[in-house]
Amino acid sequence: MTVHAINGDASFPAAKPDFFDTDIAARLGMEGQQPVRILLLYGSLRERSYSRLLVEEAARLLQTFGAETRIFDPRGLPHADDVDVKNHPKVKELLELSLWSEGHVWCSPERHGTITGLIKTQIDHLPLVSGGIRPTQGRTLAVMQVSGGSQSFNSVNQLRQLGRWMRMFTIPNQSSVAKAFEEFEEDGRMKPSSYYDRLVDVMEELIKFTLLLRGRAEYLVDRYSERVKDERPLDPATDLASVAIADYSVKEAKAGNQ
């Protein structure tokens, strides 16, 4: 079952909410925007899963910054090579959530120096193309990891590589929490630390980039090689670049007449 509510607790004991940027769209000159839609994935099924706890903390922040969030529960997800996986309800749910989303957050524990099989399985279930639609292309991505030992960036580096392969816009900032067992209270909430401050930074940045790409991602991922393959020459009346340039020229002309 996909998690929609996060423990019913919207407080932030590890942060100073007075410093939160909760009006990002307005600051970007994009008032009146619909909430950004973010899908969050985590990579461990342990009862006390630190990757899940970090994702839950990220979801609370995203909601405070004006986003709508969904956390995918990977329990019961089959292996990517199982028979007839496309018709499995968990696989369908994951695909539908990716199509719903504008951005993703991926969080994995570091296990044997890399990401877990569980997070990789979730990503493997997201095809590059499904019915002519690319369920990840053009979406933003924030990557995070938790470690049982000292600071490491192996998992976030692997997740970045996967994000590039899935044709996503991975934001520059990232979160890596070392000795994660020391960074959470018994109730699952994160303690105040520089790790928590970085998490806030990452979620703010994800909202900013997702808003900036809204309405532009389709053009940014449009490729010459695919236009040739599809025999789809650019049409000035319909292609996104020409329309955007025309709209910009009209706005500039109106501004010059004022």
Automatic annotation (TrEMBL):
Gene3D superfamilies: 3.40.50.360. InterPro entries: Arsenate-R_ArsH, Flavoprotein-like_sf, FMN_Rdtase-like_dom. Transmembrane segments: none annotated. It holds the Pfam family FMN_red. Coiled coil: none annotated. Its cofactor is FMN. Keywords: Flavoprotein, FMN, NADP, Nucleotide-binding, Oxidoreductase. The keyword Acetylation does not apply. Residues 37-181 form the NADPH-dependent FMN reductase-like domain. One of its GO terms (molecular function) is FMN reductase (NADPH) activity. Belongs to the ArsH family. Homotetramer. This is NADPH-dependent FMN reductase ArsH.
